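ENTRY TYPE: paired fold submission
RECORD: A
CONTENT: sequence, then structure tokens
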Amino acid sequence: MTAKKILIVEDDAALLRGLKDNFQAQGYQVRTASDGEQGLEALLRDPPDLALLDVMLPKVNGYEMCRVARSWGLSTPILMLSAKSRVDDVLRGLAVGADEYMTKPFGLRELLAHARRLSQRGTPAEQQGRAGAAPGVLAPPPGLGVRQPSGAFDHTGQFPKRQSTGALQNAAAPARPLSSSERPMGIRQPAGPRVG
């Protein structure tokens, strides 16, 4: 298995060195850039498995880097790191195409966990190649599935009915109109025979 490639674009030299050291210790192949222009060139020339972008960069800011990368069709996961923590800043980052937005100061373990998750996601082409995926359809990540309680639904198409204990049971009994005390407020009974 080859090491995942990460591009870190950060203008704070001490933070850049710390991030580089920590990602290398986790087995990543790390490339760095200290301004947005160098970072954008590196991102487009040789797309990594993950890009970690500061927002406030010299020459080209992180928002613009992300916007340009997405406009070129780059599907590399992008995680933005910024001291800009207002909701509008976060929403702007997500709107231009970032997959994640974390604010500084951040927890290193949390950053590494987000990075690991994003870099394991892979490109859409890799996701299509997973076992069982039809051409053009993304397969769900391995290990994800929805478990239903035993007997929650049957093949008759009937919806489950809640018991007072909260457990589910099949609604096999013939449907009857709800009395006014059983109906949610504002829901009127459909036309038909009235029940008590």
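RECORD: B
CONTENT: sequence, then structure tokens
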Amino acid sequence: MSIRPSEQRGRTNGDAARLCADACRLVEAGCPARIAVLTAPPGMLELPLWRLALAAAALDGSDPVAALEHARTADAGEPGDWAALSAVAYAQARIGWDRRVRRDAVSLLGVEGGADRDPLLEARTLLARAAEIHPSSSLWNDIGHVAGLSGDLDGARAAFLRSLALHPADRHATINLAVLMLRAGDPHADIMDFLGRTQLAATLPPALLLLAGGETAMAGPAEVHEWRRTTVFSYAWRRELASRLRAASAEPGGGAP
């Protein structure tokens, strides 16, 4: 028995809604890379929301170039969407950081690195645009993280402080600022005083645990690549993605127009 066009559309819409529900669960479970193996029904690739989900999958799967393509497509489909802008920025930051690490390694070998424009600068600009559209402590935290990756410690400090001005209990900005203070060589007593005055309900990263335990030599300033002293993104756009996927899963066509 043949399937009438209306029946086929109903099945496709149901598939799209189920796909959004599956993708939402994967994002919330912290494994968005698995979104890439989901089979999308016809037309899903045209949706900015699904492109944003594929960007999250590619970033989690360590393919920032593919993530950048998906995120840019999502941004083009929804101009001015802060989450899409953030996804583009995250991909640019990952690419820029990878290039910087490679350049540093090449420099140690005495070989000249490339002279390409640093994508970290583009990432910072995009996040600033996103923060204008959607002011939040999370986005200012992300601006501070990218500034720190670029080596602009003063800019990073200012961004983390602006994040905390918007939300004094922001756990990412609080820990990131303390880690930045370590990198900048602030007095250990000042760092511990700052942490003692914050509303923080999160596990401290290794560098700050060492400092709290009295191992000040191990907790002091270090190279930007040293893992105990790196700041982190907030991933606010990924939480927003999960929220949008959940809403789309309740719609007949998975959010399709």
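NOTES ON RECORD B: Residues 206 and 228 are 5 Å apart (CA to CA). The two ends are 29 Å apart (CA to CA).
STATUS: closed
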